[in-house]
Structures are given as structure tokens and as C-alpha cells.
Specification:
The protein is of the alpha/beta class and 388 residues long. 49% of the residues lie in helices and 15% in strands. The protein has 17 helices and 11 strands. The strands form 2 sheets. Strands 4-3-2-1-5-6-7 form a 7-stranded parallel beta sheet, with helices on both faces. It has a 4-stranded mixed beta sheet with strand order 9-8-10-11, covered by helices on one side. The structure holds manganese (III) ion. The site of manganese (III) ion has 4 residues, from α7.
Amino acid sequence: MKRKKVAVLGSTGSIGRQTLDVISAFRDDFEVIGLAAGNNIQLLTEQIKEFQPRFISVKDAFLAQELKALLKNPSVEIFWNDIGLEFISSCSCDIVVNGLVGSVGLKPTISALSHGKRVAFANKETLVIAGGLIQDLIKKHKGEIIPLDSEHAAIHQCINGISKDKVRKVILTASGGPFRTWTADEIKNATKEQALKHPTWVMGPKITIDSATLMNKGLEIIEAMHLFDFSCNLINVFIHPQSIMHSAVEFIDGNIIAQLGATDMKLPIQYSLFYPEKRQLPFNLFCDLLSVQKLEFEKPDYKKFPCLKLAYEVAEKGESYPVVLNASNEIAVDLFLKGKISFGDIEKIISKSLDAHSPTEPKSLEEILSIDSEVRKKTIEVFDTSAI
Ligand code: MN3
């Protein structure tokens, strides 16, 4: 049997590493043809030795030089920056796993879909800022996105081909993050260490902060709208602290179909790589509901999680607002991780950026990117003048 060729974008990140764990367990089914990483050259070198890809991409020319010196391996072609990412996504691979964080994932997604590839997709920011563009590309070039974000992989399984006009409601679950039981005032002054302590999922720093503000769920609302062509008023966020039910869909005949499973990204990764095939799980990650015992659900409190409210408003308004939401959030989270602003300031910065924005209807990649970079610049200015 011919092995499927896989390119992994963000290979040294949380999704990338777990994707390679899954591929390791299915060596007869997959071969790694390309790896793209940021600046973790150490780990990338180990991955290259283990998986023997043909193409590599790193963040910049300097790192490419450093990697070349480390490898002494002429059979690997090394690229860098945006161009490297785009090349790896359009190379002779069958599946592109997009485990990149943030809008840096947009161009490689466009590149993969323009070549009609399957994209196993964890890069929600790309759909948030350019969902319409991505949908058009899928139709035009017959590529596909198989979600590997756990909630969206869940919805994908619940819907399983049923037409969207039979959907009455989508229940998008959120663990509630580390501050679920805190008061609104306590949350505003949370430290970086407290915000990085996620109760159920182990993830990279940006998404962990987004999970603490619930902005992650807000971005996932917009992601779901584009993946499944839902309107935002169909999507309900429920806090579900056990993180066992990854999402559910209620149909017009009153039947609710939910997807449950272990809290581990290797499950949705395996799902998206093999879809529609089902394979024996090679890890001891079966979910024992008897030991889970109870599944709880609660409504999110907007006073505690104002970022979720902002995201709902943006989802409703559309136009260029999602680009602003995403860009200002990326900047604000970065400032928080660098210790420059308080946890409560994250929402304030995003709010200011949204209020200052005059919306347009971006039609092209160039327009989206120009709004994106303008908002980033302005958001940093707002911070520098300490007007927050
Ligand atoms: Mn998720």
C-alpha cells in the first residue's frame, strides 16, 4: 500500500509534536515529507533524524544556516520564512497538518488548498480572519479541511453528512479554563503563572491564555461558522469542566448527538489524518466514563469572561471585525506573556481596537493582511501611549 505523504507545519509545537507521535504509530500508512518549525532548531534536528523528510522550513535565513551546520545532510532541502511555509504546503504531499499558531498560518493554508490538498487543521486564527476566502478556495480547487481542533472534530463527527438545515443548535463546549471558579475581580489580576495552568488540556502558551480568557472559545465560534456554514446564533457555548464531551449537535427532530472521548489531541489528530477511515487507537487513551462519573454543564458568565462576549459581537457583525479581534488579541496576549500588561488589560486592549475600527468587507488576501498589520501597529500604539 502506498503511504500518504504528510507535511507538518509547526512541527515543534504542541500539535506538531503530537502529530508526529501519531505518525510514529502508523509508519506503514504515513511518511513525513516536510517539516516546518519556528526557532526550536534542537528539537527540529531530532525530528529530521527520526522522520527523514525531504523539505524543511524554519523562521529565517539565519536559523536555516544554523540548521544546515547542525545537520550536515545534503538530502534535506532547507527553506525559510513565509516562502518556506508556502513551499512545504504545496510540495508533493497528500496531507498538510497545519498546527501553526496565529495568522502566520493563513498563507500556507491558501497554498495547500490552492493545490487541492487535504488540510488537517488546527490553525483557527486563519479561518477567523479569512474564512470566506478559504471557503471559496475549497470549492474552486476541491481541497478539503478536516478539523483537528477537538471541538470541531467533534462537530464534524456529530454532523456526519447530515445537511445543515437539520441542525437546531450546536453546543460548543469549553473547559472554563483555570479561572472558572474565580470571581471577576480575581480574574482581572491573575498572574501569568496562574493563567498558564490549564486544568484539563496541555497546550502551547498562546492558546492556553486564550483558554483562560475564553477568547479561544470565541475564535472557535467563528471557526465553526466557516467550517460548517453555521450562523453564529446557532452556536451555544457551554462550560463543561470535565472536557470529556468535546461538542454536540442538536437536530430539528430533538435528537442530540455528542462526541465524547479522552482529553488528548492525539485522538482528533488521528481522526483527521485517517478520515473517513477508522483505525485502532495505538495509545492507551480510551475514556472510562465510570471513572469520569459525572458530566457537568454551565452557562458562561460574560462578566468573568468579557472576551467571549466580544467574540460573539464580532461574529454577529462580521465584515473586517474578526480580523481586528484576532490581531488585537494576538498582540494583547503577547504583551501579557511578556509581563507588560495585566490579565484584565487583554480585554480592554481588544475592546479599544474594535471600537476604533471602521469596518470594510475585505475581498482579497492583500486587504485582509493590510487590515491585520494596521491593527497590530495601532494596538501597540494604544499600549505605548498607555491609554488602556
Ligand atoms: Mn479547541
